[in-house]
Amino acid sequence: MVSPSSKEVFIQGITHDGKTFRPSDWAERLAGVMSSFRPGGARPGSHLSYSPWCIPTTLNGVKCVVVHRDLQGHEPMAWDFVINFARDNNLQVAEACLLPDVPPLPKP
Fold it and tell me: What is a single Pfam family found in this protein's UniProt entry (predicted)?
């Protein structure tokens, strides 16, 4: 399902049979559960922000959770949890890397 060569895995809010996954805030809920898994470990107040290893987003109108491969190296059970969440809920998973936003070129 997931190869070790990609840096990030995108869990998409679309099932394999094309249905939108519910509830509509599933991505935020999953990322919230994973908020304490972060570089340096959990710290006071870390539950108030998302982990850089598990970020909810919307891509092309589809809710997604971007899971960074570093999570697997630091917290294998947490990695298994998110991958099994996708599998158990029949969600589509894509391997890729999230590109940073590039500012537009100045007009001549």
Answer: DUF3579
- Side by side, the strands of the sheet bearing 62-68 are 54-59, 62-68, 8-15, 91-96
C-beta of residue 108 within 8 angstroms of C-beta of residue 28: no
The distance of Cα 45 from the centroid of its chain, to the nearest Å, equals 21
pLDDT for residue 77: 96
Residue ranges making up the domain that contains 65: 8-96
pTM above 0.85, yes or no: no
Both tokens of residue 102?
């590039």
- What SS3 state is found at 12? strand
Backbone angles phi, psi at 54, to 5 degrees: -150, 95
- The burial class, CB within 10 Å (0-12 / 13-18 / 19+), for 89 is middle
Number of structural domains (the chain) is 1
> Does residue 2 lie in a domain region?
no
